[in-house]
Design a protein that fits this description.
mainly alpha
């Protein structure tokens, strides 16, 4: 028999009702950081290519990348690199079938976030 109340309720949970689990958020962020690192790599190649093209063009590109906005983008790219690396290590561990219970997944998620902040700050300080 057909469900007569189907039109009175949502067909599936959506983001206004359903809260993504932490593992879902980290998975989405892993994909976003992968794309972000690709864009950062393009910017770095652009910088190298500008140096090979002419001194004036290199100064223009270098000025863009060393501006406040450029430095924020590069710092964000650095954080994306650390996040993606740490989360990928976690995925490699999961591929062995270990550390996959809900409590450990949440702990390692927070560990990835904390590690990203610490390693990004250490890299900025050291370099």
């Amino acid at each position: 028999m057909a469900d007569v109340n189907r039109g009175n309720r949502p067909l599936s949970p959506h983001l206004q009702i359903y809260r993504l689990p932490l593992s879902g958020i980290t998975s989405i962020l892993n994909r976003i950081t992968g794309v972000g690192m690709t864009l950062a790599a393009i910017a770095i190649v652009w910088w190298f290519a500008a140096g090979a093209f002419s001194a004036a063009y290199f100064e223009f590109v270098d000025g863009m990348l060393t501006s406040i906005l450029g430095l924020l983008v590069l710092i964000g790219s650095l954080a994306a690199l650390w996040y993606h690396m740490l989360n990928s290590i976690r995925h490699l561990i999961w591929d062995t079938g270990r550390m996959m219970d809900v409590a450990t997944v949440e702990k390692t998620s927070y560990g990835v976030f904390a590690g990203t902040v610490v390693l990004t700050l250490l890299t900025i300080i050291i370099v």
